[in-house]
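Dear support,

I submitted the protein below through the web form. The confirmation email said the job was done, but the results page showed an empty box. After a refresh the structure appeared. I'm attaching both so you can tell me whether what I see now is the final result or a partial one.
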Amino acid sequence: MSGRVLRLLCTAAVAAQAALVPAAATAVPQPPAEPGKPSVAALLTSLQTLYRQAEQSAGTYDATAAQLSRARTESQRLDAALARARLALRDSRSAAARLAQQEYQGTSDFSPYLRLLLARDPQHALEEGHVLDQLARQRADTVRRLAGDERQAAGLARAARTALGTRLALARRRQQARDDVRGRLHDIEKLLAGLSTQQLTALATFEQSGLTQAQTRLLASGALGEETPPTQEGQTAVRYAVQQLGKPYQWGATGPAAYDCSGLTSRAWGRAGTPIPRTSQEQWARLRRVPLNELRPGDLVIYFPQATHVALYLGGGMVVQAPRPGARVKVSPVAANPVLGAVRPDPAGQPLPRYVPPKLPAGAAVGPDTAL
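What the results page shows now:
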């Protein structure tokens, strides 16, 4: 996004926060639309659609990047195995060539039985026969090894070609997802650039009002329950996430200079010694799910029906998150976005006997909260 649009968004966000009383549960009335221009609700819907599409495309990009990394590792493994197989095949072929040469040079019109009958020393001939049997077995082993090496090399060559094709397809898919994200963000910038400062302020105020209502309803419902302390790993993940406050959102980024939503959560838990899947969809699909009334600091809160956004639970009804393009890592209410559920990266961990939440710096909650 351009610097002008970012400045307008920051101005609008600050104005919106100043206009609202945090404890209020009543939305600020929507201002009337200007003649010939869409209403604030319509603008918010358009932005929600564009941001959601951008985040879905960014999720596809992240997932494809992770798949491409795994495919690259597998391709390199297959290439190395194929190189070893070809060396073994070369050795087997050399052994087979020597065998053929020996057979050619040792050709005789006399059969082994006739040589035994005509031998001056039959005992010596029998001993020679034993040696010949051993040689025959060695020759048979050489032939079997050659055939096996040929099959292995052929199989590895096919697997390597398939792996290369997979890598190329994933690279094309990642590029397509990247272009799609850039296109969506360009549409967002174009929409925001066409709004006046008053419209931006009204938009941010309207958005913040809805967030306040959602958080109030969630807390009043008792859905969060009574919290337990995090595990040692959860505490480490929380403290790392808090240290990232103020860093910019950048889709596809995993730190340390910038993050997208799942880049922040995966990096925080990676620093805690518990690697987790890279994307919010994989985190939702593969990690242990926990009810909201059992949330503890360090758990991950997943948002939207397609699991396209994720935040790290801080405690007290708040999360640390990288909200969206143009925003920065911040502390937000847990109800900043429609909650899908929660997952726990360390379900077998033991909660700490005592937990002191990290001290938040000034301005930790400044900025837009919704991922839209």
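Response: this is the final, complete result; the empty box was a page-load delay. The mean pLDDT is 79.
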